[in-house]
């Protein structure tokens, strides 16, 4: 049985007292602090290595668990998962097809309305004005493009088509001069012959 320190043995410090070799007012030695810092760093390095090892083991366990669950799946569950994947893929393909149809409808109508660049028309068109039915019919493209052309007329190609009427060209230079004189006279209120 250990002896109780009832009398207060001077060689053992009381609980909460200063450790041996320390006196009140003495500062810790810098070399002791550096040694303690190095020990702490080594311990941290060991703890980090253990944590990394445990993370790797956890990841391997999770992968093995996922494979085990997949193996436990019944054939019906596997087929349902495959069906869900195929439905998602089908919806993506249908959306891509609808986007292609819409682009073609806008480009065709933009070319008919003589837009300079159909890509600009596609980017600037009010998509809310276009209706797409369940069967894929597209309505309102031409009206939306006309509204865009009215709002932004600089998008329309304003090149005039040459007059192909052969009777005007066959009149000759004299007839053209006479027509020009009559136009000028009418404009300024001059009476001719």
Instruction: Give a quick account of the main beta sheet: strands, pairing sense, barrel closure.
Output: 2 strands, antiparallel
Terminal CA distance reads: 150 Å
Instruction: Report the total helices.
Output: 6
User: What is the 3D form?
Assistant: elongated
Features:
2 strands; mainly alpha; 193 residues; two-stranded antiparallel ribbon
SSE blueprint and pairings:
Layout: H1 30-72, H2 75-112, H3 118-124, E1 131-132, E2 138-139, H4 141-151, H5 166-170, H6 172-188
Antiparallel strand pairs: 1-2
Helix pairs in contact: 2-3
Report on this model:
The protein has 193 residues and is mainly alpha-helical. Among the domains are: 34-72; 76-155, no CATH class. The chain has helices at 30-72, 75-112, 118-124, 141-151, 166-170, 172-188, and strands at residues 131-132, 138-139. A two-stranded antiparallel ribbon has the order 1-2. It is elongated, with a radius of gyration of 46 Å.
